[in-house]
Amino acid sequence: MHTPYEAPRSNAAPYDVLVIGGGIIGLVTAWRAAERGLRTAVVDPAPGGGAARVAAGMLAAVTELHYGEQTLLGLNLASARRYPSFVAELERASGHDLAFRTCGTLSVALDADDRAHLRELHDFQQRLGLDAQWLTGRECRRLEPMLAPGVRGGLRVDGDHQVDPRRLAAALLAACERAGVVLHRVRAERLLLNGDGDRAIGAELADGAGTRLTAGQTVLAAGSLSGRLLGVPEEVLPPVRPVKGQVLRLSVPGPYAPFLSRTVRAVVRGGHVYLVPRENGELVVGATTEELGWDTTVTAGGVYELLRDAHELVPGITELPLVETLAGLRPGSPDNAPLLGPTELPGLQLATGHYRNGVLLTPITGDAMAEALDSGELPPEARPFSPRRFAPPTTATAAVQEHTA
Ligand code: GLY
């Protein structure tokens, strides 16, 4: 199905680029495309919403390192390096403050097992040349006096920062509007194909009138919903699934501030817990990881688990007002990495599957997608994340495999 790239600028369609999904990934794609002079629209009933409304906003390339994810680490680090200039540019373009905080992160261990786990992680980080410093329990508490006395040691990672994802989404929306991106505040019902069914040409809207928007390039950037758009041929449907995360928001009243001066996290009984303190006094506690399909119920069990683990880490949290509980859906992919750029169906590109790293990967996703939309090619650092890595084997390959089995 792979055919040479056709320039997206075409007078036949009202848009060069139609982005389905107005979360942070869809919006950054639209903003960056519009900056390159592409006539761009976004389709979403509530642009600026999505998983970013729930996310804590950790930029945790080093502290959230996992074995087997070194390729993803490269993309995460490249995006983390772009964050300061991305924030400055977006703040200028939108007039919004993103509450980007270069405060660093402390990952701590509460018992011998956690300590062994963290030591292993530190060895791995050192082998990869990453900047992480081992601290004793006492050194951890000197940095963060609210930590539990039982903390057994920790990793200080000064390069893992944070941003407020709700502010990020609002700023991207404002930047899109200022750059001339057209917002269609309605759900996309179906991908449109040309008469031969071999090219994506836009989307039909769920507006009751069956409005059809055509575009040179359509980008599917609908987070965990990306695999559910009607009309997408099976062989290019993104293999994305929802992974539920429950998150709490506490507030730190003036007399308790500063409660924590950096992000504090731990693995407790195998689950990740993190506390992300904002300068405005918000303290975000997250997150559960649950494979429960489309369920977004906040459960007593989820809230209990988060509070229990956070309390073991920082006992003083029980004094703080609990102001919000929410659940969101991470767009999980088979290898936990995003799907970026052209698919095997001409006219259809993907920007989805960011799983735990949507906020962190926003800057590099915007740059990579704008390049792919403009030139038809992903930049080198994004090429390992082409959706083609999940394409079904071609008939020829399948035949060879069958013959040699
Ligand atoms: N990266 C944090 C989370 O997905 O919970």
Count of structural domains: 2
Describe the biggest sheet? 8 strands, mixed
Poorly predicted runs are 7-11, 398-405
Work out the helix count: 8
Could you say which overall geometry the principal axes of the C-alpha atoms support? globular
Percentage of residues in helical conformation = 25-40%
Strand content: 15-25%
Distance between the termini: 26 Å
Order of helices and strands: EHEEHEHEHEEHEEEEEEEEHEEEHH
Say what the CATH topology of the largest domain is.
FAD/NAD(P)-binding domain
Structural category is alpha/beta
Ligands bound to this protein structure = glycine
**In the CATH hierarchy, what is the superfamily of the largest domain?**
FAD/NAD(P)-binding domain
User: What's the Cα radius of gyration?
Assistant: 22 Å
What would CATH call the architecture of the largest domain? 3-Layer(bba) Sandwich
Domain FAD dependent oxidoreductase: 16-371
GO biological process, one term: thiamine diphosphate biosynthetic process
EC number: 1.4.3.19
Catalytic activity: glycine + O2 + H2O = glyoxylate + H2O2 + NH4(+)
Task: Write the topology of this structure.
Blueprint: E1 15-20, H1 24-35, E2 40-43, E3 58-59, H2 70-94, E4 105-109, H3 112-127, E5 133-136, H4 137-143, E6 153-157, E7 161-162, H5 165-178, E8 182-184, E9 188-193, E10 200-205, E11 212-220, E12 241-251, E13 263-268, E14 271-277, E15 282-286, H6 300-313, E16 322-332, E17 339-342, E18 348-352, H7 362-375, H8 395-404
Helix pairs in contact: 1-5, 1-7, 2-5, 2-7
The structure holds glycine (GLY).
Glycine binds at residues 58, 64, 245, 286-287, 330, 356.
